[in-house]
Structures are given as structure tokens and as C-alpha cells.
Amino acid sequence: MKNTPFTEKHIALGAKMAEFAGYNMPISYSGINDEHATVRSNAGVFDVSHMGEFILKGPDALDLIQRVTSNDASKLTAGKAQYSCLPNHEGGVVDDLIVYCLEENKAYMLVVNASNIEKDWNWISSFNTKGVEMHNISDKTALLAIQGPNACKMLQPLTEIDICNLTYYTFAKGVFAGVDNVLISATGYTGSGGIEIYFEDSNGNAEKIWNAIFELGTPQGLKPIGLGARDTLRLEMGYCLYGNDIDDTTSPLEAGLGWITKFTKSFTNSEALQLQKQNGVSRKLVGFEMVDKGIPRHGYDIKNAAGEVIGVVTSGTQAPSLGKAVGMGYVANGLNSIDSEIFVDVRGRLLKAKVVKMPFA
Predict the structure, then answer these.
(1) Beta strands 223-225; 44-47: pairing state
(2) Does the predicted TM-score (pTM) go above 0.85?
(3) Which of 25, 29, 66, 296 is in Cβ range 3.0-4.6 Å of 316 for a Cys bridge?
(4) Cα separation values, 3 from 25, 55, 143, 182, 243, Å
């Protein structure tokens, strides 16, 4: 099991630790509900150093990205980022990712899911027929996400970059907490605002940045946050989690990701996906809230009133901000429109639920 540069910090703080994507990660500190509320109302720090980062450079870097991703990266200029996915040949998704434009048409950073680092590297490399310079910098890159409505103003004293005015899906590079060449982005996964900081794990940078953030933030209520609250926060916003809501078998169109699937260019499996768009999908990812008491969990069957299976739960939880249980799942046509009545099979009991619009929060 791998460690991040902050693993010892988490253990010293009494975090509940567990394996996640091959890493020893903090699941919770003070409790998921408390940590969730901290991010929604103030600010919290997530160690997400387990994520993967690839650098692609050269005159053909953009061409390679265009061929392997579904979104149109040609729209990116330096300092802009874009959510996208890597379609496979069978209509599913290799991974979802964020593309950062470091230098227009010349240099890009791709941020991928921790569990898919090797898979994504091999997949992208298989299309690299023009000698694009590729670097896997995952193991030497540290990443902290400071999320919440007060995160930016809390941390502004640590940098001359105007982080409070970074618009969504933009980034800047500079000095943060005395460390140079830090990339600061506004591409958060919680729906509560904030920033993410990428930096090289060398020369004591991780220690310096972690200590500076908490020395400044702790008196203002800043807390460390685990992956448990990260999951409840993203689920309330209806954000997909790879391995749960999207995977190698789910189409981006079924998953409601048509907005990142641009047919103005040719990319992996684009012709088949365009046909799917024209003909329509037979199921789609929906959000639902429980009417009967019970919590939906990943893998539970979704059924109709007659008890016939019409889908499957991909994510579910008792939403801390809402005080009710919500979930996401793929549901067949006929019962996947807003206000449709569906039933979740919870250990043999059919519990009523209602399809609702996302985000939940």
C-alpha cells in the first residue's frame, strides 16, 4: 500500500485510515457529517495526492489529446482547464479526467483517477504515434484540495496569486507558502468552491505547505477532511465517481455527459457514440431520493412496482446537508424521467423512491 506525502500527518491527527486505490488514505477524522458540514459552511483540506498527473508536450500534444478525449481541447487557452473523458472502443469510458492547458498547443497536464493511472497511461500511450513527449509525474506530485466558501479568503495571505477571483475551471502558477512553481486551480469536486494546489513533493515542500495552511487556517475553523465526506459532498452535487457511476461499460451519453462529448471532431469511438446520440439511449443515469426510510447502496437493484429489475444503484448515501437518503443509478426508459416512482431493493425489501433533478443540494 502506497503512502502520500501527508500519510503520517493523517495518522498523527487520529484519522481513520483505509486502503483506497492502492493508497493508505484518511476516511474520516471527526466524523463524516461534521467534516461534510465544515466544507459546506467554512473550509476543509483534502489530501488527494493519490490522483494521477501526466504531462504531454510537443507540437502534436493537442492532436493526441483530441484523439483520445471526448471534449474539444482545442478550445483551451493557457490557464484554462476542461472536464473530459477517455472513451473506449466498446462505448464505455476508460476514465474521466481534467485537461489543464499549460501552454496553448504545446503543453498540457492530464489529471486522472488514482485507480486508473497505469490503465490510462497505457491507453493514451497506445495512440501516441507521433512521438508526443509524455511524463508520468504522479509519484512526485502532491495535491491538496482546500474546499469551502471561506477557503480562498482564508488562504489568500499565502500567495500573491489572486485566488479569490479564479473563475471555475481556470488556474494559475506561482509561489504559495514560499514554495515556487505551485499550480493553483479552481476545479473542485465538492460544489462548495475553493482551490486545489499541485506541487512537487521535494525539498520539504509538503511539510512546508501543510503547516502553513493549518497555522493560518486552524484558528479560523479549517479542518482536515477525509474521503468519506468527499463522497457525500460530490454525491449531493450529482458528480460522477469513476468505478461507481461511470466505468468501462457505461456510455458518456447514458451518464449525462453529452456536454463533454463533442462531435465537432473525431475521437475514439466517436462514430458509434454519434449514432447513439441520434438513436437515443435505452437507459440513463438519474438522481433519486428515497420516499421510504432506507439508504440505497452501490449495486442494489432498482425495480418497478411489479418487482421487475429496471436498473441499478451506482451511488447512495444519507445526505448530510439534506437530512434524507439520495442516490444515483441507471434506470431504463419509461421510469427515468423526473418524478417517476421507482423502488430500491434493500435486502429484499422494495423501498419507494422518486426520480429527482440533480444536483440534490
Answers:
(1) parallel
(2) yes
(3) 296
(4) 8, 22, 13, 21, 21
